[in-house]
Amino acid sequence: MIDLYYWPTGNGLKVGILLEELGLDYRVLPINIREGEQHHAGFQRLSANGRIPAIVDHAPEGLDKPLSLFESGAILNYLADKAGRFLPPAGSFERQKVQEWLFWQVGHITPYLSQLQVFKEKAPAPIPFALDLLNAEAARLYRVLETRLSEAPYVAGEYSIADMAIFPWIQPLRQGQDLAQFPHIHAWRERLKARAAIQRAYAKGREVAVNERSLALQ
């Protein structure tokens, strides 16, 4: 059994997607970040950074006690390796390509697109300098992804944890991007939206927080 401590934001959803794709036995333990539950001491014992998601694997292979992990990229790598799916074997060229795009998501997509959403949706008044900078970076990141998807159907060639990590963060309406300008992103996004596991992950997210903005799939 795996406990998933999360809220259905972009970072939470990507772990939910992988768990659904793998068919692993798990239970959702909501951490309501809108009410500050991520700051509770009990959760911070699992997630030293005080951010969702985190997991506890109660039956880790080769260990005699439960394993807790925080940071979504580390969780995706661990679960994919545990199941032997969606992450190629260690030492392979294909694995390195998955890691390349996974770390691109962690290092660029989440920080910049999340900041853009905060400045657009939560700032008491518009801050033109921040909005100009972050809108430009969002457009640049979309162009990077569009170029890659013009070369392959999925970011690392085959469907992988890298796609699962990026997908929940591509929210064009919130990020001021027109997918008519990014036809390969649009086609990739439609392919992923059609996957049953992704549909289940989003349905479970709506059971937790139906109005969470990241759950909209326009």
Structure, explained:
The protein is built from nine helices and four strands, in the order βαβαββααααααα. With 218 residues, it is an alpha+beta fold. It is globular, with a radius of gyration of 17 Å. The protein has a four-stranded mixed beta sheet with strand order 2-1-3-4, covered by helices on one side. The mean pLDDT is 97. α1 (10-22) runs parallel beside α3.
Radius of gyration: 17 Å
Largest sheet: 4 strands, mixed
Give me the number of helical elements.
9
> Order of strands side by side in the largest beta sheet?
2-1-3-4
Number of E strands = 4
Principal-axis shape equals globular
The mean pLDDT is: 97
Structural class: alpha+beta
What string, H for helix and E for strand, traces the elements in order? EHEHEEHHHHHHH
Distance between the termini: 33 Å
Beta fraction = 5-15%
Task: Detail the poorly predicted runs.
Answer: none
Helicity, as a percent range: 40-55%
